[in-house]
Structures are given as structure tokens and as C-alpha cells.
Design goal:
binds 5,10-Methenyltetrahydrofolate, EC 1.5.1.5, about 290 residues, 11 strands, THF_DH/CycHdrlase_cat_dom, Rossmann fold, NADP, six-stranded parallel beta sheet, THF_DH/CycHdrlase_CS
């Protein structure tokens, strides 16, 4: 029998612990952690994320503000908002929802966010720190995946981890964290040869490609731990539902443990955003 890794449950207990830590932080510092989320336009995935995030921020005991800008916002206007948030002492964490509309530069905005407020961990300074193994602010989705892996497997040393996908927001930081945890790490991507055979070698398989149900049962080593990062909206029988990058029914016949979609990586991502916000607040008041 495969074991279900319940991201909803694990994230709830993470946020519960965080609320305790936050109360203590506020009592000691008289500072309430503040998170600012910037949403440009109306990307549906980002809207879901914002809704869940506001709920969790409140549960954690933070102040949270939402800044909605119209689809046609220009770079100067977005830059001005980020600069205002950078210099606002009540804001400890800034998240600009990606993807941005085409007229806006993501690298420019990521570089502009003050690194100590970069709760996504996307700023080049934080990316560099992660590569060097001494990051404070770690990208939320990979951090959430590591918490689930540690809870499922304990020590990850020596395990072969295969990461499918090489994005800056998931694949690359995920590989860095697995390496830091002493895994043997392979990254496969769209140009890789014989992806299936490489996936079949994995003790830990992390799917982060954004292709509905790409990973099939035959790609998975019996007993492997499978983390499904994909959140894909598909139409079937006239209704919309969410599926992962993993063909859940097939793979759960083979895997030792697997994350569901929804209720897996998604809620953990949000819990880790909250963890990063408290970390960021701690760093900023101690200076
Ligand atoms: N700067 C930035 N950082 C992000 O981390 C970021 C972003 N931009 N833009 C949008 C994507 C998307 N994302 C999600 C996180 C959690 C769920 C989540 O909790 N999903 C629920 C399902 C929700 C539902 O039922 O629709 C689940 O998987 O159980 C979804 C999507 C973070 N993103």
C-alpha cells in the first residue's frame, strides 16, 4: 500500500507552530510581521494563491496587505510600488505574483525587491546564498517539498533524487536543497534523453514540469517517494479539475509514498511563505 503524504495536514501543523513562534516574536519585539502581496492583472492560478495566502497569513498572526494593479500596469508604476514597500518598515516580506503580464520584466522586478524582504527567495543574492548552502530565504515550493520528504523518509543521505524540470522557481532550487541534504541529484528536462529510464532509478522523484499526468506508473521504481509539484487545470467530462504532473492512480500503485493534487505541495508552498515572512521579520528587527 502506498502512503499518502498529506500536504494539507502537514501545512496546518506547520502554520500552527508558526503561530506560536509568531506570538512569541511579537511579545519580545513588539513588531508584527507584515507580508505584502502584489498581484498585477488577473492570472487565475495567482488568484487562488492569493486567496489561500491571506487566510494563512491571518492564521499565522501576521499583518497582510494586498496590492492589486491593473493588467496594463507599466514597469515604472510597478517599480515605484516595490520601492515604496522596500522602504516601509511595517512590511517584512514582499511577494510579487508571477507570471507578470508580457510588458513587465520579471528579472528587473526580482532584482529590485530588497533581498532581506524577498520571501520568494528569487533575488540573485538569495539564489547565490542557496547555491552556496547558506540561504536564509529559500524558495517556498522546494522548501515545502523538503519538509514533506524529511517527514516521510527522515535522513535523505545517499538517496538518488531525480528532479523533472529545471525552472528557476522549482527545479533548480529543489536540486540545490536535495544536494545539500546529501542526495545524489539528477535533473532531467525537455532535452534529456531517455527520461523514463532515469526516473525509474529515482528513490525520490520530484515532478515540476507543468504537464498534466506526464509521469506514468511505468516510470517509477517500486517503493519510490513521489512529490508532485504540478497544479494543472484540465477539462474532463465538461468540468474543470486539478491534476498534477503525475498520473496519480497509476503511480500510487507503484510508489511507496506520494503527494496528492490538490492537497499536496500547494498548501506547503503557502506554509513556507509564512515561515519565510517570520524569518525575514526576525532578520530585519535584529539589525
Ligand atoms: N511570486 C510567486 N510565488 C509563488 O509561489 C507563486 C506565484 N508567484 N504565482 C502563482 C504560483 C501558484 N502558486 C500556488 C501555491 C499554492 C496553491 C495551492 O494551495 N493549491 C491548492 C489547491 C487550490 C484549489 O483548490 O484550486 C492545492 O494544491 O491543494 C496553488 C498555487 C504559487 N505561485
Amino acid at each position: 500500500m502506498t502512503r499518502l503524504i498529506d500536504g494539507k495536514k502537514i501545512s496546518a501543523s506547520e502554520v500552527e507552530q508558526l503561530a506560536v513562534d509568531t506570538r512569541q516574536f511579537i511579545a519580545e519585539s513588539s513588531v508584527t510581521p507584515g507580508l505584502a502581496v502584489v498581484l498585477v492583472g488577473d492570472d487565475p492560478a495567482s488568484q487562488v494563491y492569493v486567496r489561500n495566502k491571506v487566510k494563512q497569513a491571518t492564521a499565522a498572526g501576521f499583518n497582510s496587505t494586498e496590492h492589486r494593479l491593473p493588467e496594463e500596469t507599466g514597469q515604472a508604476q510597478l517599480n515605484a510600488l516595490v520601492e515604496q514597500l522596500n522602504s516601509d518598515p511595517s512590511v517584512h516580506g514582499i511577494l510579487v505574483q508571477l507570471p507578470l503580464p508580457a510588458q513587465l520584466s520579471e528579472p528587473e522586478i526580482i532584482r529590485l525587491i530588497a533581498p532581506e524582504k524577498d520571501v520568494d527567495g528569487f533575488h540573485p543574492q538569495n539564489v547565490g546564498a542557496l547555491a552556496a548552502g547558506n540561504a536564509e530565504l529559500i524558495p517556498c515550493t522546494p522548501m515545502g517539498c523538503m519538509i514533506m520528504l524529511r517527514q516521510t523518509l527522515g535522513d535523505l543521505s545517499g538517496k538518488h533524487a531525480v528532479v523533472v524540470g529545471r525552472s528557476n522557481i522549482v527545479g533548480k532550487p529543489m536540486a540545490a536543497l536535495l544536494l545539500q541534504a546529501n542526495c545524489t541529484v539528477t535533473i532531467v528536462h525537455s532535452r534529456s534523453q531517455d527520461i523514463e529510464a532515469i526516473c525509474r532509478q529515482a528513490d525520490i522523484l520530484v515532478a515540476a514540469v507543468g504537464r498534466p499526468e506526464m509521469i506514468r506508473g511505468s516510470w517509477v521504481k517500486p517503493g519510490a517517494t513521489v512529490i508532485d509539484v504540478g497544479i494543472n487545470a484540465v477539462e474532463s467530462g465538461g468540468r474543470r479539475r486539478l491534476v498534477g504532473d503525475v498520473a496519480f492512480n497509476e503511480v500510487s500503485e507503484v510508489a511507496g509514498a506520494i503527494t496528492p493534487v490538490p492537497g499536496g505541495v500547494g498548501p506547503m508552498t503557502i506554509a513556507c511563505l509564512m515561515k519565510n515572512t517570520l524569518t525575514a521579520a526576525r532578520q530585519q528587527i535584529s539589525v
